[in-house]
Amino acid sequence: VYSISFLDFDLFKINKYHSVFQLREKDNPEILLTKDLEFHIINLNKLIKPDSEFESWLYALKNGHLLEGEEMSTLVKKNPKLKKVFKEYKDYT
Q1: CA distances from 92 to 55, 86, 87, 88 (A)
Q2: CA-based nearest residue to 35, from 48, 23, 20
Q3: Is residue 72 left, alpha or beta, with left meaning phi > 0 and alpha meaning psi from -120 to 50?
Q4: What distance in Å separates the CA atoms of residue 76 and residue 27, rounded to the nearest whole number?
Q5: Rounded to an integer, what distance in angstroms lies between the CA atom of residue 2 and that of residue 6?
Q6: Strand pairing partners for 3?
Q7: Band of the pLDDT at 93, cuts 50, 70, 90?
């Protein structure tokens, strides 16, 4: 089971935009209850510049309604699949 939560606020005082939590034994954290249960927290406010394909998807999710011109072209060059996303978004709005 995977839980993925997208946040637009700081839940934790860390600089990472993606945190993963698992269930571990309190006194022996090296003991993992199961590897099949994870909680992913993605803080979109902490994503500054997209460098990977995953980050470009997150950046488009957060800023898609604001992206135009060169910035949109740069994202599409990094991740060609986003071209269809932006087209669908424009058709929808």
Answers
A1: 23, 10, 9, 6
A2: 23
A3: alpha
A4: 47
A5: 13
A6: 39
A7: low
Amino acid occupying residue 4? I
What percentage of residues in the chain have a pLDDT greater than 90? 41
Reduce the DSSP state of residue 20 to 3 states and report it.
Answer: strand
pLDDT in tens, 35-57: 999 999 999 999 888 888 888 88
Chain-centre distance for alpha carbon 49: 12
Q: What is the pLDDT of residue 88?
A: 75
What six digits make up the tokens of 63? 């800023």
Question: Of 60, 91, 88, nearest to 74 (Cα)?
Answer: 60
Predicted TM-score (pTM) of this structure: 0.73
What letter represents residue 85's amino acid? V
Let me know how long the chain is: 93
